């Protein structure tokens, strides 16, 4: 962000005026004490003369990999800023909900390593070691002569 400010001849006060924000908030962004919220990124991007998508990535509200997720438009550049912000807020809400649920759910029961009936339904046993291995054994009765 500093590079864009310098190139434009802006200081933090000018950016805050152009982006309709506070100088203190812009100062926190420049000192890496805070990141712009999803709602102010479009106006900040416009003030800096950069695409909103690039500003979202720079502010870490979006990663390049996120551009391929199903609930964003196939070409996010075609979204208006309000739609992009709305979709990102929804994605962040869902991510937070999923993370909270994952923290609350108990770990799956552990199955001790050992021989178990083959999950494919074959008349063999297969060795489980946290995952099904390629090791199998016959379940036919042993004959002693």
Automatic annotation (TrEMBL):
UniProt cross-references to CDD domains, sorted A to Z: HTH_XRE
Sequence ranges assigned to domain HTH cro/C1-type in this UniProt record: 1-56
GO molecular function per UniProt: DNA binding
A Pfam family per the record: DUF2510
Coiled coil: none
Origin superkingdom: Bacteria
Listed name of the protein: Helix-turn-helix
Organism: Rhodococcus triatomae
């Amino acid at each position: 962000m500093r590079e864009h400010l310098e190139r434009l001849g802006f200081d933090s006060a000018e950016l805050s005026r152009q982006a309709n924000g506070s100088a203190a908030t812009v100062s926190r962004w420049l000192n890496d004490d805070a990141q712009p919220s999803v709602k102010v990124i479009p106006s900040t991007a416009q003030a800096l003369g950069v695409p909103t998508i690039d500003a979202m990535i720079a502010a870490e509200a979006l990663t390049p990999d996120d551009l391929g997720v199903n609930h964003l438009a196939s070409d996010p550049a075609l979204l208006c800023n309000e739609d992009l912000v709305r979709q990102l807020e929804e994605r962040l809400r869902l991510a937070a909900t999923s993370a909270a649920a994952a923290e609350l759910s108990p770990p799956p029961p552990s199955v001790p390593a050992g021989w178990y009936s083959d999950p494919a339904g074959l008349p063999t046993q297969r060795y489980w070691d946290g995952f099904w291995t390629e090791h199998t054994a016959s379940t036919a009765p042993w004959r002693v002569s």
